[in-house]
Design a protein that fits this description.
Layout lengths: L14 H10 L4 E2 H11 L8 H13 L3 E3 L15 E4 L1 H25 L6
Antiparallel strand pairs: 1-3, 2-3
Helix pairs in contact: 1-2
Length: 119
């Protein structure tokens, strides 16, 4: 039975999986573009090596959070070996559930510890 037929809650997601979903929410990307975008967005704090990146992508394909895209840019502008991925509607629901889980956790932590002002 596909995972998507079960509860849409696969949370907590690993940081790699959540960041990949965040990147794909803005449009289709290939693996190397995902890696660069995540490193840039996190200020270099999260640098996905090939094993983590492609292992996460493989799991996400199995879980039907993402799918491989058939659409490709102009072959003259791109390497034909690249695979492009996009988020599925189920992947979007799981990402929303994870964001809500993290929001609730941050609210709890703020109530218990306070949240320092961002410099």
């Amino acid at each position: 039975m596909p995972i998507r037929d079960q509860s849409p809650d696969l949370t907590p997601l690993s940081p790699a999986v959540f960041h990949i979903l965040l990147s794909l929410a803005e449009g289709e990307r290939h693996g190397y573009a995902l890696r660069r975008e995540i490193a840039q967005r996190t200020g270099g704090k999260l640098k996905l090596g090939p094993g983590v990146l492609y292992g996460s992508i493989h799991k996400m394909l199995e879980w039907e959070l993402i799918e491989e895209s058939d659409e490709r840019p102009d072959p003259h502008l791109d390497d034909e070996r690249r695979r492009y991925y996009r988020i599925t509607p189920y992947g979007r629901k799981v990402a929303q559930a994870e964001a809500a889980r993290m929001r609730d956790l941050v609210q709890l932590a703020a109530a218990r510890f306070g949240v320092p002002k961002h410099a």
